[in-house]
């Protein structure tokens, strides 16, 4: 990702610096959040009804969306400056096109994260509805219900 935008110099926050260096902290935050999100997703595959993991996933998705929006804002600011540099002849078309691709990729990532957040919210709501409609049993017995129901269906069918 960052290798695309090397060599583009912009002013962000009053500081004239390379765009890749300006986005260094944001990219580090995004990588860290994505790593944690990957761990939570692995654990959710083993226990998809774990509300603690789902809550952690929602928090991580919120953080990832915020960081990605911050990156997108910085890229769009850089795009305005890069367009001016392109018109003045200070920036090559290839660098400007690379910046455009980076913006498109970041927008797609933001959409993907937003969709994942919607799916996570739906899963949590489904679990909450299920837990409110079922009779309360100890946790050890609750984990047996899906298997027990499957066995009952198999036994009843001829």
Give me some keywords for this one.
mainly alpha, 6 helices, two-stranded antiparallel sheet, disordered C terminus, single chain, 77% helix, 158 residues
Description:
- The protein contains 6 helices and 2 strands.
- It has 158 residues and is mainly alpha-helical.
- A two-stranded antiparallel ribbon has the order 1-2.
- Strand 1 and strand 2 (15-18) form a beta hairpin.
Structural class: mainly alpha
* Quaternary: single chain
Head-to-tail CA distance between termini = 57 Å
Dominant shape:
elongated
Number of helices: 6
Main sheet summary: 2 strands, antiparallel
In short:
The protein has 158 residues and is mostly helical.
Q: How would the blueprint of this fold be written?
A:
Blueprint (H helix, E strand, L loop, with lengths): L8 E4 L2 E4 H4 L1 H23 L4 H38 L4 H41 L5 H4 L2 H12 L2
Antiparallel strand pairs: 1-2
Helix pairs in contact: 2-3, 3-4
């Amino acid at each position: 990702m960052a290798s695309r935008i090397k060599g583009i110099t912009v002013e962000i926050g009053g500081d004239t610096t390379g765009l890749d260096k300006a986005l260094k902290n944001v990219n580090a935050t995004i990588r860290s959040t994505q790593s944690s999100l990957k761990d939570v997703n692995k654990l959710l595959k083993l226990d998809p009804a774990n509300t603690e993991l789902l809550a952690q996933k929602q928090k991580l998705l919120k953080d990832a969306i915020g960081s990605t929006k911050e990156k997108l804002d910085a890229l769009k600011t850089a795009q305005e400056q890069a367009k001016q540099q392109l018109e003045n002849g200070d920036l090559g078309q290839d660098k400007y096109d690379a910046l455009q691709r980076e913006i498109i990729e970041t927008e797609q990532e933001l959409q993907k994260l937003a969709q994942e957040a919607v799916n996570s919210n739906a899963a949590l709501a489904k679990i909450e509805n299920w837990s409110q409609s079922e009779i309360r049993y100890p946790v050890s017995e609750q984990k047996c219900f899906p298997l027990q129901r499957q066995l009952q269906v198999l036994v009843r069918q001829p």
